[in-house]
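Annex B.
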Amino acid sequence: MVVADDFFFPGLNIPGNTSNPLGSRVTTVNVNQLPGLNTLGISVVRIDYAPYGLNPPHTHPRATEVLRVLEGTLYVGFVTSNPADPNKKNKLFTKYLNNGDVFVFPEGLILFQFNVGRKNAVAFAGLSSQNPGVITIANMVFGSYPSINQVVLTKAFQVEKKICKNPNMVVADDFFFSGLNIPGNTSNPLGSRVTIVNVNQLPWLNTLGISVVRIDYAPYGLNPPHTHPRATEVLRVLERTLYVGFVTSNPADPNKKNKLFTKYLNNGDVFVFPEGLILFQFNVGRKNAVAFAGLSSQNPGVITIANAVFGSYPSINQAVLTKTFQVEKKICKNPNMVVADDFFFSGLNIPGNTSNPLGSRVTIVNVNQLPGLNTLGISVVRIDYAPYGLNPPHTHPRATEGLIFFLFNVGHKNAVAFAGLSSQNPGVITIPNAVFGSYPSINQAKTFQVEMKVIDSVQAQF
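Cupin type-1 domain-containing protein: predicted structure tokens.
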């Protein structure tokens, strides 16, 4: 079915239409336009450029390009791939090309061509693939469908996502904000109020990398521990005295602790809080205090630690928080509701009932029985043993010291013991119950290297 026209394409003598924002047009002749190229590993393009027209940064994922300038002068270049050393930058190779000049763009690298003259320019290029493909960087990153999440793009390009206003629509009020002379309302549990002037309140801060806040503090008011993920803060105290500080990031040595830097600031004093670190300000006086701060971002963001950790929606799993902060999940009682009985337990003088197969009974006094133990990291138990009674192998996962242990009464009479544990809620895992009495049951034959009928017999006891 092959005919001569399968090897023929007319039209590369016709200039492409460059009346578009970029001022360029690529006329492609690959296997889709010229079937005879199939399997031959080559294709060709004609590129027309209006005065100052641009063939924008792009890459050919499957081909090297060899460009030959026919008319005009082009400024061309390509950028190398990421260097092995992360401290080094991608290298740009550029050249001015005139009529008859040839330039090679290696496969897969980002390249561009720009007409630097006042007249039209023309170039032809051969590509080492019958279907080289093209990825225009701007279109791919900012014009995909669906679009890439703005959070991804702002972080990737280290910019804010606010769109610049049309210059023809800009007015003086875009540069103006009124109201930083007005005290903020500090009638809240923290006793502070931050009045923010960032790009959302003052549009012309867009791209300028700066914003400002006024912070009002009631007597003993607190701007609680927080961080600005995108900005360094420079604080200037206007009235009264503040106790301020920040904490360093995690040290390289895990045996060292994060370091706290603090300072008392008076009227006129300035203090710097580095970007991303946890900081706070506290009014130590009996009168209102005021401070102003500049931040090195048009939209610095703020993460209040207590709100983020304990007030998120949905909330962080309590198991995560209790392990992170090395506490139990019992909530402290309102101090105004505390009574003496919260610290009192009666009954450890009463023997436990040991009429069970093990011949032992543990009477527990932890935070569930004695609320006043909350956060104190201790609890107590009474253990009663019948003659030859056993407190079977078990472990306390949250108290000294987590090892498997047992207690056995070797005498002909009852025995009694008391134990303190280094947790308000130490927990207990009784090994036989956990291993052989779980629901659903665990298949244990391979673990204990015995036949299944032996395991079945043991599990039947639980």
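Residues 176 and 340 are 59 Å apart (CA to CA). The longest strand covers residues 43-49. Further annotation is deferred to the next reporting cycle.
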